[in-house]
Write a structure and sequence with these properties.
heterodimer; A: 205 residues; mainly alpha; Four Helix Bundle (Hemerythrin (Met), subunit A); 5 helices; 71% helix; 0% strand; B: 590 residues; Cytochrome C Oxidase, Chain A; globular
């Protein structure tokens, strides 16, 4: 718990009062940044393994477009980037005290995020129908592990966003305190960024 | 306050009710968000796993000391493990695997990081609790099912994982090679769950230390235990996800039919080793750094002198934290890795001995000419330093590639790692438990039985592990079921039997500690707030400290090691005691 003193703190979006200067941001924001460091290492393990296996055994991997449907995933990528924009809009709205805008943009983010997961599920279904399964050589192994765990992260993100949206409808966020929106936003942008890397190295290169 | 409380965000802040006295038993002791209770929960859980790991070790020692003879009491084990009390080879490989797994992940790591990270960080930096108390609670309650999953492996068909605690692929990835399928899957799932628990714990620690230090607690006034726990938390945060990623691939190889580590399909068994040790070597420092930290605190206290070279200690901790990432290949000299790369790892490994040596000399410098109080925590701390030197020096031997080629996967390695993990970490854990026990439970542990336990442990510990160096140099393989299978190892049976008998005594001696721990809880002498006359902030509050720790947030005026200061008549000077001329610390005001 933040200091009891923080309860009557004037600005909860600032570091805890009555402390030695630290990172200069409030706890939840610092915590999320640190946690994302851990997430980076997790994806580093998966992506690193992919790069090593692909360099060591290039013949197991197919050229872009041969198996994977690049066009539909490009649309999906665009969607996810859009959801980062709507997330920024939600954050900007609540900063200005525009609570109606916050609710509107959060709902938009949830819908777009859920669509991404839906389209990914459809893509998986199509690929599996074609016989491209996780046990299909190194290509299948790495493809499903990396994109699958990314999809899992998006799903977790959507669940968190739904939670934040419900709280927004309860009026829990204000211009003075919208930590939940900012912290979920950080996670969401991170997941988006990971996808841009994955899309590039899995689908385009 | 009422108006702002309504706006609080559920992510970070408990409501003011957390302070109310009338908490239910469940809320206060089971699903508690108090870092002190969570620390004690971790303590009890990991001591049980330490006991379990010890029991597994005793069965291993029985087989090596008295090969293929019926084990006393072994009749209770099912036919699939030990028919007629004779340990089966398949069960033996599970034993060595699970002894390592339980000791590393469920005993030593939670004892150091889970227990003392939780208990000490807020108290020592002057914070009322962790930054995220509920995530802290989740971290413990995620570790518990991980433990049950790991235990479950003993009861499934095919037996428990038996590819070694390092689970090298393809042995671990293919059930047809070991006959173990479900056991290995449970091993994987359990460690993924435990990894999540560790990550939740570590980002909490980091946030707390960075953002919640009391006014005046500059970075260079932090106790070295907190510095060590801080760097350890960073290592956990960045290393555990690598292990999780690697284990997920292993799990998929077993269950989904992927081919990450299957050479026939282009997979790379060496990839597992690189990923495992990229986690595994920082893990080694995760297991020793907190021990170094608590030993620094205790040695300064017992020597009644400031820590010698505080700044160099901090630099050494940071140096270990950085260099720990670039030495993993020294576990893999014999793996078929490029020898040129091996040389690189040899050099980096030699380098990492430097910060460790700095710390050892600083501990000696702290004790030098000190008016030493040989209380039980100090005895354990001195043993920690001495045994760590032995383990560290054999580590430098092994870092040298030509030597390692000879002793790789022999009992020399077993001796080395136990000198670091038992001689190092576990002595530090005994030191820390006996030192902070009065703060945790409000009573002192019995010093007489503490000494008995210490001396017997030190003696029989060395009887067990020192001769293992000899076994290793004579070629005794690391995970072998019955060395008498080989003509050239037959002459070592006498030494093996000696080690086993010493190990049984060593195990029995630990029961003294267990009895002392339990009895003192009820009958121990009541502890004052500051029984060791220490300067740390945790000793300025009652034993045990109340919920919320500090009545008012302490102000810190100096470092934690001002012993025998000429400024005061006592020989200690608490960090929060204001003397004339001390400037008031400027807290952060936004």
């Amino acid at each position: 718990m933040a200091h009891a003193a923080a309860l009557d703190h004037e600005d909860v979006m600032q570091p805890p009062r009555d402390c030695e200067p630290g990172a200069g941001v409030y706890n939840a924001k610092l915590g999320m940044w640190v946690f994302l460091g851990s997430e980076i290492m997790f994806f580093t393990a998966l992506i690193g393994a992919y790069i090593i296996l692909r360099v060591a055994h290039p013949s197991s991997f197919k050229a872009p477009g041969e198996v994977l449907a690049v066009s539909i995933t490009a649309v999906n990528t665009f969607l996810l980037i859009c959801s980062s924009v709507t997330m920024v809009k939600a954050f900007a709205s609540v900063q200005d005290g525009n609570l109606a805008g916050l609710r509107k943009w959060l709902i938009a983010t949830v819908i777009i995020g859920a669509s991404f997961v839906g389209i990914q599920a459809y893509e998986y279904q199509q690929l599996i129908a074609k016989g491209f399964v996780p046990s299909e050589g190194l290509y299948g192994s790495t493809f499903y592990t990396m994109t699958g765990f990314h999809g899992f992260h998006v799903t977790v993100g959507v669940i968190c966003l739904i939670f934040v949206t419900l709280r927004a409808f309860q009026g829990r966020y204000t211009a003075k305190d919208h930590r939940g929106v900012e912290v979920v936003g950080l996670y969401w942008h991170f997941v988006d960024l990971v996808w841009i890397i994955l899309f590039t190295i899995v689908y385009l290169i | 306050m009422a108006t702002t409380a309504g706006q609080l965000d559920g992510l970070t802040i408990e409501s003011g009710h957390a302070h109310a006295e009338a908490q239910s038993f469940v809320r206060k002791y089971i699903f508690s968000t108090d870092h002190k209770i969570i620390g004690i929960q971790f303590l009890l859980m990991s001591l049980l796993f330490l006991l379990l790991g010890g029991v597994l070790a005793m069965v291993i020692r029985w087989q090596l000391g008295f090969p293929s003879q019926p084990m006393p009491g072994g009749g209770v084990l099912p036919e699939t493990m030990a028919p007629g009390g004779v340990v089966l080879p398949e069960f033996y490989t599970s034993l060595v695997t699970m002894h390592g797994t339980f000791m590393v992940f469920f005993a030593i790591m939670p004892l150091l990081v889970g227990v003392f990270g939780n208990y000490l960080i807020p108290l020592k930096i002057g914070a009322p609790d962790m930054a995220f108390p509920r995530i802290n609670m989740a971290s413990f309650w995620i570790a518990v099912p991980a433990g049950f999953l790991m235990l479950a492996g003993f009861f499934v068909e095919g037996g428990h994982a038996s590819a070694g605690w390092t689970s090298y692929a393809p042995l671990s990835a293919r059930p047809d090679l070991t006959g173990v399928s479900m056991g290995q899957i449970l091993w994987c799932v359990s460690l993924i769950v435990l990894g999540l628990s560790s990550i939740l714990g570590s980002f909490n620690y980091i946030t707390t230390i960075v953002n919640m230090r009391a006014p005046g607690m500059h970075w260079m006034r932090l106790p070295l235990s907190i510095w060590c726990l801080f760097v350890t938390a960073i290592l956990v945060l960045l290393a555990m996800p690598i292990l999780s990623g690697a284990i997920i691939m292993l799990l998929f190889d077993q269950t989904l039919g992927t081919h990450f580590f299957a050479p026939a399909q282009g997979g790379q068994p060496l990839l597992w080793q690189h990923l495992f040790w990229f986690f595994g070597h920082p893990e080694v420092y995760i297991l020793i750094l907190p021990g170094m930290g608590v030993a620094s605190d205790i040695i300064a206290n017992a020597s009644r002198k400031p820590v010698f070279g505080y700044t160099s200690m901090v630099v050494a901790i940071l140096g270990i934290g950085v260099l720990g990432w670039v030495v993993w290949g020294h576990h893999m000299f014999m793996s078929g890795m490029n020898p040129t790369l091996g040389t690189t790892f040899m050099i980096s490994t030699m380098f990492i001995a430097v910060p460790s040596a700095i710390k050892v000399f600083n501990w000696l410098g702290t004790m030098w000419m000190g008016n030493i109080r040989f209380h039980v925590p100090m005895l354990h701390s001195i043993a920690f330093v001495s045994m760590f030197v032995i383990g560290g020096l054999s580590g430098v031997f092994m870092a040298s590639t030509p030597v390692d080629i000879y002793i790789h996967d022999t009992y020399f390695i077993v001796a080395h790692l136990h000198y670091v993990l038992f001689g190092g970490s576990l002595f530090a854990i005994f030191a820390a438990i006996t030192y902070w026990y009065p703060k945790m439970f409000g009573r002192l542990m019995n010093p007489f039985w503490g000494r008995v336990h210490f001396y017997l442990t030190l003696i029989f510990y060395n009887f067990v592990f020192f001769p293992m160096h000899n076994l290793g140099l004579k070629g005794h393989m690391r995970r072998i079921y019955d060395p008498n299978e080989y003509e050239f190892l037959k002459g070592l049976q006498g030494l093996n039997t000696f080690i086993s008998i010493s190990a049984f005594i060593l195990f029995t001696v630990q029961l003294i500690f267990a009895a002392n721990f339990i009895m003192s809880w009820y009958k121990g002498e009541k502890a004052s707030a500051n029984p060791w006359e220490d300067n740390g902030l945790e000793w300025t509050v009652p034993s045990p400290p109340p919920h919320g720790n500090f009545a008012t947030i302490p102000h810190v005026y100096r470092g934690p090691y001002e012993y025998s200061s000429p400024l005061v008549t006592e020989d200690f000077l608490p960090q929060n005691r204001e003397l004339p001329g001390d400037s008031s610390p400027a807290g952060h005001h936004s």
